[in-house]
Amino acid sequence: MVGGEVLNTLTFAAGSLPPGLLANDTVDASDHLPVLLDLEIVAGGDGCGDVNSDGAINVIDAMLVAQFTVGLRACTTLSSFGNCDVSPPGAPDGTCSIADALRMAQCSVGLVSCDMVCGALACN
Ligand SMILES: [Ca+2]
Questions:
Q1: At a CB cut-off of 8 Å and minimum separation 6, what does 25 contact?
Q2: Which of 14, 30, 95, 114 is the most buried (most CB within 10 A)?
Q3: What distance in Å separates the CA atoms of residue 102 and residue 107, rounded to the nearest whole number?
């Protein structure tokens, strides 16, 4: 807070608060945070890249897809498997592969745009 004014409000899903934050918490100088976070809130948009339907593309999506690509996870366990095919950028190739997981991971750390186009993939 600056001068008592709330500049931004972030909303987290139940159970997904970042470590050290409490519900209805505010951050000010007295918190002595060692780093300032540069947050990009990623809208689900049409959902491309968001395979677990939590409204964000992040390392969790990348991990789920990576697990799928090596046979550790069935596509039926991904609530939005159809959002997987995001690579190559702008021209999805009709598969859910490690390249898709990589792109999700890169998006989650700001290396590539999270504005993705995905192909129509069916879990079968
Ligand atoms: Ca997600």
A1: none
A2: 114
A3: 9
CA–CA distance, 68 with 79 (Å, rounded to integer): 13
Report the distance separating Cα 108 and Cα 112, nearest Å.
Answer: 8
Task: State the distance from the centre of ligand 1 to the C-alpha of 39, rounded, in angstroms.
Answer: 16
Instruction: Report the half-sphere exposure of 103 (CA within 13 A, side-chain side).
Output: 25
The per-residue DSSP string of 19-83 comes to: TT--TT----GGG--SS-----PPP-TT-TT-TT-SS--SHHHHHHHHHHHTTSS-GGGSTTGGG
Residues bordering ligand 1, an ion, CB closer than 5 Å:
50, 52, 54, 56, 61
Instruction: State the pTM of this model.
Output: 0.64
